[in-house]
TrEMBL record:
It holds the Pfam family TPR_8. It comes from Caerostris darwini. This is Protein O-mannosyl-transferase Tmtc3. One of its GO terms (biological process) is protein O-linked glycosylation via mannose. One of its GO terms (molecular function) is mannosyltransferase activity. InterPro entries: TPR-like_helical_dom_sf, TPR_rpt.
Length: 370
């Protein structure tokens, strides 16, 4: 009971991929407890006072250790820090502490732990990705690019002259997405970002996220036909992804294929009825292209968006437009007033143009907020 349950996790016969932890000692500890009980029963007949005193002390000591250990298990942060007290040469622990700090928004502290992970394990691809991601959050874009490129250089390479899908951990492939997303902030480097997405796809042909991001870049490059092909390929891999259907709808809009765009938006909403972008853009498309019989659908979709926390001003604007189409001037005024509550938005300029074109809106509205 002490030895055999421990053997599978001992690394003696095959590598298990993790360090010895409490969870692999639960079963072996049962055998140890049985040995203690057997030893006490044998020795208690000779010197009962001493034996029972030692047993009580042992129980109290381990009970105290359990109470102290419970404090380490309070949360992930304290648990990983307790591991660092025992082993300061484990890069994974530094990365885990950094992740905890990152989720708390403590990016500078997280960056310190990620950098320490690199010092402990210079070839840790994940640590470089973590450094680059955190530096991106801190606006340290040049340093972030260097970190991502270092992580990319550490990825396994195919043998010379051979083509194959490299066996790379899915989490490590994120380096391509992170690096491409970073450099695509610069509109002059979109081609470079596109090449990175293509490289990720070559390394793993079912990498859906790379297809999605590449499609976004192709749209920005005005290569909508290629973007359509990319999204359709992504749908072959994951047909139940609302974002892909929505993005394909955007491509069709760019190509002025409004019927196909609406079909894609509807598919996205069938998968995720709360998909905000699909709700908004499909409602706008209905309001602009659809007939009076479809206005109710557009109105209902815009109303769903009002249930969110941060309502886009365009929601109010197009609710006002729907009311104008219905000749409900009072309701339109209500929605337009909501749209111009933010003094920095541009909706009020649109409303001025609208009023000038319609010519049927109350003139006192012209003085509101302008």
């Amino acid at each position: 009971m002490c030895v055999f349950p421990f053997l599978p996790a001992s690394n003696l016969f095959f590598p298990v991929g993790f360090v010895v932890a409490e969870r692999v000692l639960y079963a072996p500890s049962m055998g140890f407890c049985l040995l203690v009980a057997q030893g006490v029963s044998l020795l208690a007949t000779r010197r009962p006072v001493l034996v029972w005193s030692c047993l009580i002390c042992l129980i109290c000591i381990h009970a105290s250790k359990t109470v102290l250990r419970n404090a380490d298990w309070k949360n992930e942060h304290s648990l990983f820090l307790s591991g660092l007290k025992v082993n300061q040469r484990n890069a994974k622990l530094y990365n885990n502490v950094g992740h905890c700090l990152e989720t708390q928004g403590k990016y500078f502290e997280a960056l310190s732990y990620f950098n320490t992970a690199i010092r402990v394990e210079p070839n840790d691809i994940g640590a470089y990705i973590n450094v680059g991601r955190t530096q991106t959050q801190l606006g340290m874009y040049e340093d972030a690019e260097k970190a991502f490129r270092k992580a990319k250089d550490l990825l396994p390479r195919p043998p010379f002259g051979e083509g194959y899908e490299a066996r790379v951990a899915p989490s490590h492939l994120n380096v391509f997405l992170n690096l491409a997303n970073l450099i695509s902030r610069n509109g002059t480097r979109l081609q470079e970002a596109d090449k990175l997405y293509q490289e990720a796809i070559r390394m793993r042909s079912d990498y859906v996220e790379a297809y999605i991001n590449r499609g976004d870049i192709l749209i920005r490059l005005n290569r909508t036909r290629e973007a359509q092909d990319v999204y359709e390929k992504a749908l072959q891999l994951d047909d139940h992804n609302a974002d892909i259907h929505y993005n394909l709808g955007v491509v069709f809009l760019e190509q002025r294929k409004t019927d196909l765009a609406m079909t894609s938006f509807d598919k996205a909403l069938k998968i995720n009825p709360r998909h905000e972008q699909a709700l908004l853009n499909s409602a706008i498309l209905i309001q602009e292209e659809g007939g009076p019989h479809k206005r109710k659908t557009a109105y209902n979709r815009l109303q769903m968006l009002l249930e969110g926390k941060d309502v886009n001003e365009r929601v109010y604007f197009h609710l006002g437009m729907l009311a104008m189409d219905e000749k409900n001037i009072t309701l339109a005024e209500k929605w337009f007033r909501k749209a111009v509550e933010n003094p920095e938005n541009t909706t009020k300029q649109n409303i001025i143009l609208l009023v000038g074109n319609k010519g049927s809106f109350p003139m006192d509205y012209m003085d509101y907020g302008f």
